[in-house]
Amino acid sequence: MQDKIVWVTGASSGLGVEIVRQCASKGAKIILSARNENKLNDLRSELNSPDDHLVLPLDLSDSSNFDDLVKRVLKKYGRIDALFNNGGISQRSEAGKTSLEIDREIMEVNYFGNIALTKAVLPVFQEQKSGHYIIVSSIAGKFGFFLRSAYSASKHALHGFYESLMLEEEHNNIHVTIACPGKINTAISVNALNSEGKSTGVMDDNQANGMSAEECVRQLLKAVQKNKKEILIGNKEIKAVTLKHLFPRLFWKVIKKQK
Predict the structure, then answer these.
(1) Residue 119: which domain range?
(2) Is the pLDDT of residue 246 over 80?
(3) Looking at the chain, which terminus has fewer C-beta neighbours within 10 angstroms, N or C?
(4) pLDDT tier at 2 (50, 70, 90 boundaries)?
(5) Is 162 tagged catalytic?
(6) What's the confidence (pLDDT) of residue 259?
(7) Which of 77, 111, 133, 151 is catalytic?
(8) What would the pLDDT profile of 159-171 be if each residue is shown by its tens digit?
(9) Residue 199: beta bridge partners?
(10) How far apart are CA 245 and CA 32, in angstroms?
């Protein structure tokens, strides 16, 4: 990644922070994007050669300025080599108790905001005849789970979009890697929306006891280096994907007993 121009959304917390740190340690020049500009500036100041990196606040729920943000990146760096579409929000509420408004909010951030930035960057990748999209989906993008209806739906949608995109843009040397983390030790559950559209403020046991963010990102970057189309990251929970594929009846018996 030496001197590669790498754009990271959701860079102010969780996996985004670790993606920034590990990419920067490998020599990349980072565009740090999220809503919290103060946190982004604090993270940028921790990196070697802070002036090599750009803080670019971005709100995935409002894509109206994405084309302008791309122009700012090009003005500074002249190109974009990789986009880590990592930003998003989770959910902890039953479908029957969740208003359609909250469903739309989650879909707007996790799906429409995600692909809006991808489409803004796509002409750059096409002109360069190179580029790499790295999509942070979830194991919930492979099957539904309790309290995750809108979140899981938004992640499933990403798979459909990016599997299509990777086929369409292969001739332009544009790569796509979809990462499906399982239980990772981040604050994603703390920031997840409840049935009232508010942050739960609670750390799930699954996250508290999950794989470290450092190890998750290490595996992710290894997959990116190998141009893998998809990678499952986690501990024994990721075996559920294979179980569903090979033994669906057993999968549904097992998954109902999970916390």
Answers:
(1) 5-255
(2) yes
(3) C
(4) very high
(5) no
(6) 73
(7) 151
(8) 999 999 999 999 9
(9) 193
(10) 37
pTM value is 0.96
**Exposed, middle or buried, 46 (CB in 10 Å: 0-12/13-18/19+)?**
exposed
The count of residues in the chain is 259
Place of tokens 């740190």: 21
Kindly report the average pLDDT of the chain as a whole number. 96
Which residues are paired to 136 by β-bridges? Answer: 179
Q: Which of 131, 128, 118 is nearest to 85 (CA)?
A: 118
Provide the β-strand partners of residue 176.
133
3-state SS string over 133-186? EEEECCHHHCCCCCCCHHHHHHHHHHHHHHHHHHHHCHHHCEEEEEEEECCEEC
Count how many domains the chain has. 1
pLDDT over threshold 80, residue 125: yes
Of the candidates 41, 23, 20, 139, the residue with the CA atom closest to the CA atom of residue 90:
139
CATH code for position 220:
3.40.50.720
Beta-ladder partners of 133: 83, 176
Rg (CA), the chain: 18
**135 near 162, Cβ under 8 Å?**
yes
- Among 166, 184, 191, smallest CA distance to 238 is for 184
Phi, psi of 208 (to 5 degrees): -60, -35
- In the prediction, which pLDDT does 206 show? 80
Q: Which residues, in sequence order, are CB contacts of 235 under 8 Å at separation 6+? A: 182, 183, 210, 211
